[in-house]
Design brief:
The chain is of the alpha/beta class. The chain has helices spanning about 10-15, 35-50, 80-90, 105-115, 140-155, 170-180, 195-210, 225-235, 240-250, 255-275, 295-305; strands at about 20-25, 55-60, 65, 70-75, 90-100, 125, 160, 180-190, 215-220, 285-290.
């Protein structure tokens, strides 16, 4: 039996203005058997159904790049996985796509129409991993302009990634907002300072440009050991030595609990500063599952966010 809860899934467009809570599960791998893929799907769906406060599911594209920027995909048929999760959970799916790897504007158009045709009406459009590689696909701003009408016609939205530690990020966010981004999901955070700085600057730029700000959805992930820290860094996330020490230095077996506490503290610091400075940028949370073994810890962190203000009050 599903838990009793006054909250019911909201359209993504409504949720973005009122502290959205996202969950980002790991999809089946490229070599997963049909049985293993079904088991992964149902295990994710079952846990999502146990947290009614979750607004949307972000489906990452698992892809590596070689030194020339050519992709090696590690997941298969993500639209099918996203569509099935929507059906089984009642939550909207948001499909991530590295548009830099597409070969032409026609490829981008075909991809967007295929995704919408399979019932997924929201996407996060992502650039390439390196600024030094001449990718064949469009820049993110160009992709936003091309894809926004396609997803909007289906009642959906387009979003992008925000990287708080990247120089000039607030200006990039403004350009992407003007090109159609309705929200940003950040890289995984373990400290608040860079996110606060970017959100404050983005808020100021939007005010100056008379542009309504997109929602910034701050990403967190539970980690349990040094191997997780190395993986997080490989993903491109920034974890300071002090944050690593705060999470990993202590009683053995309690790292995951300290990781959860760190995430909640970082979020509350961001929200506190936003309130203190009357920042108009809407804020939300995305909890990422960084590997198949982290499903239950990730959902546990989602539950901890769901049980705290401002999420529990909605």
């Amino acid at each position: 039996m599903e838990p009793s809860n006054a909250f019911r899934p909201r359209p993504l467009s409504d949720a973005l203005g009122s502290h959205p809570l996202f969950f980002e599960p790991v999809p089946p791998g490229l070599r997963s058997s049909p049985t293993a893929s079904e088991e992964r799907l149902e295990s994710v769906a079952s846990l999502v159904r146990s947290v009614p406060r979750i607004d949307a599911l972000v489906i990452p594209e698992l892809v590596d790049e070689n030194h020339e920027g050519k992709p090696r995909y590690r997941s298969k048929d993500l639209p099918a996985f996203a569509s099935a999760l929507q059906t089984r959970t009642g939550r909207e799916a948001i499909l991530n796509k590295v548009v830099a790897h597409l070969g032409s504007p026609d490829d981008l158009d075909r991809w967007a129409h295929e995704v919408v045709g399979r019932g997924v009406r929201n996407a996060v459009l992502v650039g390439g991993a390196s600024r030094y590689i001449p990718y064949p696909g469009p820049a993110v701003v160009e992709a936003n302009r091309a894809c926004r009408p396609i997803f909007r016609a289906a009642g959906g939205l387009v979003g992008n990634i925000a990287i708080p530690q990247r120089t000039g990020e607030a200006h990039r966010m403004l350009s992407k907002t003007r090109a159609g981004a309705a929200f940003f999901t950040t890289q995984i955070l373990f400290d608040a300072s860079q996110a606060i700085e970017v959100v404050r600057e983005y808020d100021l730029l939007c005010r100056q440009a008379a542009t309504p700000p997109a929602t910034v959805v701050v990403s967190f992930a539970p980690i349990a050991d040094e191997m997780d820290v190395e993986f997080i860094r490989w993903l491109g996330a920034d974890i300071s030595d002090s944050a690593e020490d705060a999470i990993l230095d202590g009683e053995e077996g309690e790292d995951a609990t300290r990781s959860e506490s760190r995430a909640l503290e970082v979020w509350e610091e961001i929200v506190s500063v936003a309130r203190e400075h009357a920042i108009a940028v809407p804020l939300g949370v995305n909890v990422e599952q960084i590997s198949p073994r982290h499903l239950e810890p990730a959902v546990h962190l989602v539950r901890r966010f769901a049980d705290r203000p401002p999420f529990a009050a909605l």
